[in-house]
Model the fold of this input.
Amino acid sequence: MFASLRPLVTNEDGATAIEYGLIAALIAVAAISAFQLVGVNLSSVFHNVASKL
Done:
């Protein structure tokens, strides 16, 4: 009986997929935050240039 359960216990494919998913989600959140920050700063630069013209 234990021999038939051993492959299920040692199989880590699902855990690896979840880890990769979490890493991808973390990178996506960081990228979105960075893009929003850059967007606000870029908008400020364009407003300054437009007001000087």
User: Anything to note?
Assistant: The first helix runs from residue 2 to 10. Residues 25-53 form one domain.
